[in-house]
Amino acid sequence: MAEGDDLFPGFAPLWIEGPAGRWFGRAGGPESAPPLLLLHGFPQSHAMWHRLAPALAQTHRVIALDLKGYGWSAAPDSGRGENAYAKRRLGAEIVAVMERLGHIRFALAGHDRGARIGYRLALDEPGRIERLALLDIVPTDVQWARIEANPEANPHWPFLSRPAPEPETVIRRDPDGYFEGLLRDWTAAHDLTAFDARALTLYRQAWGVPERIHAMCEDYRAGGADGPDRAADRADLAAGRTLPMPVLVLASEAYFDRDKPETALAAWQRTFAPRAQGARIASGHFMAEEAPEPTLRALQAFLAA
């Protein structure tokens, strides 16, 4: 893969056969170093980590994956009563991918949708995760409670989780206009200046593909108000399950923790991570690209503790 190689100097491209097709990723750092899995968010790809991954690879074996349905990973069909993008299923598939790379236990840092897979994986298989960093999310059940209390909050959630093919049809009319509009809205500057032009090219290449638009909508349908992701959260909350590993919660001051009823850290401490530590990053939602230096420092300190 020549495209994007210059964003990850010293990293090798990976194609991994997984339970639901091929996954694309990049690996860098000493093979003997402790493994660290990086999972990106919506509507991006592994390229969102390009400003952090080389530094993290100085102390860890870093694997940055494209999530199923995103980037260059497989985008299998979904729907008709079965959601291939439920976070429990994705977590199990990522465990299989990591095993094929030789990693049974690993640290995990996830942003946005990648963080949702990360905490579900860590709840379902806590023995797999050494440390868990969650960037700019609250649990799915908490997120929906906020939306239900304020229908104007995060309108993309109810829109993308609408039945197929309603959101797909709208997005396909102008994918760049829709997704770039979200990037602008969620940054502190409300423009695209935080994004490297090479990374934006990779994002556009993926989100313009109809199968990937469908996959992203299925991702949100799985996390819908009545979807399997929220149901899994509610079952674990009722059972009193919590995350036993060290947890770091990073929240953006200009997007996620702005004008919210409680901070992201407080939401996690109230639910699945009572002993979580946290930090607020002076950025919009895309902190790994908008504010790479403080985000990197927070992750490095957490991983080294």
Structural notes for this entry:
This protein has one domain: Rossmann fold (3-Layer(aba) Sandwich). Helix content is 41%, strand content 16%. It has 305 residues and is α/β, with parallel strands linked by helices. The chain is globular and about 45 Å long. It has helices at residues 53-56, 87-100, 113-124, 140-149, 156-160, 166-172, 175-186, 197-207, 210-222, 228-239, 264-270, 287-290, 292-304, and strands at residues 12-18, 21-28, 35-39, 61-65, 106-111, 129-135, 247-252, 277-281. Strands 1-2-4-3-5-6-7-8 form an eight-stranded mixed sheet, sandwiched between helices. This is Haloacetate dehalogenase. Residues 34-205 form the AB hydrolase-1 domain.
Can you summarize this structure?
With 305 residues, the protein is of the alpha/beta class.
Give descriptors for this structure:
hydrolase; 41% helix; eight-stranded mixed sheet; 8 strands; Haloacetate dehalogenase; AB_hydrolase_fold; globular; Rossmann fold; haloacetate dehalogenase activity; 305 residues; alpha/beta
Spell out the blueprint of helices and strands.
Elements (H helix, E strand, L loop, with lengths): L11 E7 L2 E8 L6 E5 L13 H4 L4 E5 L21 H14 L5 E6 L1 H12 L4 E7 L4 H10 L6 H5 L5 H7 L2 H12 L10 H11 L2 H13 L5 H12 L7 E6 L11 H7 L6 E5 L5 H4 L1 H13 L1
Parallel strand pairs: 3-4, 3-5, 5-6, 6-7, 7-8
Antiparallel strand pairs: 1-2, 2-4
